[in-house]
């Protein structure tokens, strides 16, 4: 089984040996409950790096909802078993005091990119993400970091943060892994009641239909109410947002006039799902 390290000093010692030998270190930050989406990031890291660290930390500061934090799946033993065939070098599962020691008083915050989409509906979420990810970058000393496009806004925000803070890490985005029915894999899918799980692919289906119409010149403002109604009719409780944004920088777009991304968040069976797809 792969070594599990829980203290940053032990991690640092291990990584400094690799760095002395000139090895390229990759990191895959996760909150655990690993699925094939996470494992695709691990595969990408293994293919391009000499050493790979997977981090597992359910970061309380990025949860804006206490019951979401409480219900978040925690499956460390199974996660280690899933990682075993990949030949990962270290699983870093920091004890909470390794991330937030007594007296911790710093927040890393990215402006602009964090203001709409998930940022508008999860107050404080991205500050929690950038605070923990900056710490994970610095603690692991990774040269490359792998993130999923499933969390598209997060990928953009983390890339901006690393650039702005001169953290010498290359942030690499990897495509969203989906179930055969189109549902994006997500740890939160485990929390879906069976009926909700059966209805959940309607979100991606509606988005793909919208993307075709956007490519044919339709405006997002015209398509949005129809698509929302379709998603709710399929069994969703609420569509939180459904927006067309520039693929780089996330500026709102009325039409698919340049490489764009259609992004959505919606509630079903008490679970908040997100998805995004390229348009053009
Ligand atoms: N379906 C997926 N395809 C590719 N990458 C993914 C997928 N799901 C998650 N990831 C990526 O894995 C990393 C860790 O994500 P996380 O542990 O939050 O899992 P998650 O499945 O996104 O869980 P959540 O339910 O919290 O959204 C992130 O970079 C995320 O974008
Ligand atoms: C990047 C991350 C591991 C930070 O806690 C989390 O936001 C996630 O799992 O996507
Ligand atoms: N997948 C991003 C982590 C979160 O939803 O909190």
Helix-strand blueprint:
Layout: E1 3-5, H1 8-20, E2 25-30, H2 36-48, E3 51-56, H3 66-71, H4 76-83, E4 90-92, H5 96-99, H6 117-121, H7 125-140, E5 144-148, H8 152-164, E6 170-174, H9 194-199, H10 202-215, H11 220-233, E7 238-246, E8 260-268, E9 271-279
Parallel strand pairs: 1-4, 2-3, 2-5, 3-4, 5-6
Antiparallel strand pairs: 7-8, 8-9
Bound molecules: adenosine-5'-triphosphate (ATP), pantoate (PAF) and beta-alanine.
Pantoate (PAF) binds at residues 29-31, 59, 62, 129, 132-133, 151, 154.
SSE ordering: EHEHEHHEHHHEHEHHHEEE
Supply the number of helical segments: 11
- Overall, the morphology is globular
- Structural class computed from helices and strand pairing: alpha/beta
What's the total number of strands? 9
Q: What radius of gyration results from the CA coordinates?
A: 19 Å
Ligands in the model, by name, code or SMILES, are: adenosine-5'-triphosphate, pantoate, beta-alanine
CATH architecture of the largest domain: 3-Layer(aba) Sandwich
In round numbers, the mean pLDDT is: 97
Identify the CATH homologous superfamily of the largest domain.
HUPs
- Widest sheet: strand ordering: 1-4-3-2-5-6
- What proportion of the residues is helical, as a percent range? 40-55%
Top CATH class of the largest domain: Alpha Beta
Number of individual domains:
2
